[in-house]
Amino acid sequence: QLRLVETGGELVQPGGSLRLSCAVSGFTSDSYAIGWFRQAPGKEREGMSCINNAGGKTTIGAAVAGRFTISRDNERNTVDLQMNNLTPEDTAVYYCAAGPIRHASDLCVPYADKFTVWGQGTQVTVSS
């Protein structure tokens, strides 16, 4: 059974950093991408970044480029999102999701409709 579990969300002060992890299990092949999304109260879900699990190519959205970095940890079987220089506008529930991808050389795009398996989310609150 495909399963994604996000951890790492918490209260952090402006300017601080957090590292979110997405534990991935139940996949029988490498032909998928993992994306990170967030949803703030009253706002639509926003795609931030994704990684092609087979080839390792990453995509980072313009809104978080330079502050957020996506990476995978093959030993822990997680996809992590390192978030630096956080602001109150980063407050949201953060989700990871998995979606199919054809080739290891493909570049994923963090569009929610391309991802079919979702985690339950983890709350990130940036406040002093």
Please state the average pLDDT score: 95
Number of strand elements: 11
Low confidence ranges: none
Distance between the termini: 40 Å
Q: Structural class given helices, strands, pairing? A: mainly beta
Regarding quaternary structure, what we see is single chain
- Sheet with most strands: 7 strands, mixed
Question: How large, in whole angstroms, is the Cα Rg?
Answer: 14 Å
The number of helical runs is 0
SS strand fraction? over 45%
Tertiary shape: globular
SSE series: EEEEEEEEEEE
The portion of residues assigned to helices is under 10%
Q: Mind explaining what this structure looks like?
A:
- With 128 residues, the chain is mainly beta.
- 0% of the residues lie in helices and 48% in strands.
- The chain contains no helices and 11 strands.
- The strands form 2 sheets. Strands 2, 4, 5, 6, 9, 10 and 11 form a 7-stranded mixed β-sheet that branches. A 4-stranded antiparallel β-sheet has the order 1-3-8-7, with no helix packed on it.
- Strand 4 (32-39) and strand 5 form a beta hairpin.
- The protein is globular, with a radius of gyration of 14 Å.
- It starts with a strand and ends with a strand.
- The mean pLDDT is 95.
